[in-house]
Description:
Bound molecules: S-adenosylmethionine, zinc ion
Shape: globular
Helix content: 25-40%
Structural class: alpha/beta
Radius of gyration: 20 Å
Distance between the termini: 29 Å
Oligomer: single chain
Strand content: 15-25%
Number of helices: 12
Largest sheet: 7 strands, mixed
Low-confidence stretches: none
Amino acid sequence: MKRRLLQYLSCPSCEKELSLGKVAATEDAEIIEGELQCVSCQATFPILRGIPRFAGLDRLQEEKAATASSFGWQWQHFTQQDDRYEEQFLGWIAPVKPEFFRDKIVLEGGCGKGRHTQLAANWGAREVIGVDLSDAVETAFASTRSLENAHIVQADIYRLPFRRVFDYAFSVGVLHHLPDPRGGFLSVAGKVKPGGHISAWVYGAENNEWITRWVSPVREKLTSSLNRRLLLHLSRVPTAIVYVATKLVYGPLNRSSSGSQLAQHLFYNDYLKSIAGFGWREQHTIVFDHLVAPTSFYISRDQFEEWWRELGASDVVIGWHNKNSWRGFGRV
Ligand SMILES: C[S@@+](CC[C@H](N)C(=O)[O-])C[C@H]1O[C@@H](n2cnc3c(N)ncnc32)[C@H](O)[C@@H]1O
Ligand SMILES: [Zn+2]
């Protein structure tokens, strides 16, 4: 933990300031082992392996703990980086562009392995804080610790240990995995300063009926509770189907001027086209990600619009992404 993170933190219980208690180990600019203490209610929070910990994983409600366990495993296994993350991320947060991050204090709700925290830091954010509930923070910390404007915190999105200081917050691929997605969205938005902005990207209900009808029951009843190594191996089968289809059909057809018209009639073309450039490992991550999550909601446009209305956001831009998901951007 870099010392200057302290100015943004607040006690998740009473919202008062935190102070740095004992520091047992440091490495370069990072506090590796130590303790944070609330100046008011005296609650203490450990800093372990460089990360301030607010989550109390042993005290979490069962559904959240299962989600954290699944993704913690996933992001400690699939730690690879990919040049295409930048383009993919910009698709999820459009119309936001890299320049938008410059000099802003940014919060990422559910940072996973930290790939977007890294991009935000490299795009010139004054500070970017990536928060995740799961052990994914170990990977996120390792991949961002050399960036002086990047910070990783382990916390629950519903109990964020921050003051209301952020110019911009984003959450991609996270809210639909929460027990109450709307509540998670409002919690992240609650840390954005008035006049600041928020982006969110969620799975859509529309055009995903085949998933909710055929895949979700298998995920809920079987794959999300399988031994992770076994799921890793089993998920190679659907990955092989996606890989062959995207490399031999969707990719080539969409790239050719004569084939792209035809490709538009293919099943799930917009999405499969968007992942056709990824190699085997990234496609395996995507398939595994869909099968490992105990909780996944598929959110309709009406529901998503309602979140933004409830927030009282202005200048809201909602977009249909890859014809299977919703992205939104607005002013808080
Ligand atoms: C599909 S991953 C997406 C990670 C990252 N946004 C990305 O796109 O690479 C979902 C992430 O949400 C995190 N998550 C789930 N429930 C959470 C909660 N209650 N609070 C914070 N993070 C949570 C998981 O641990 C996981 O890393
Ligand atoms: Zn307190």
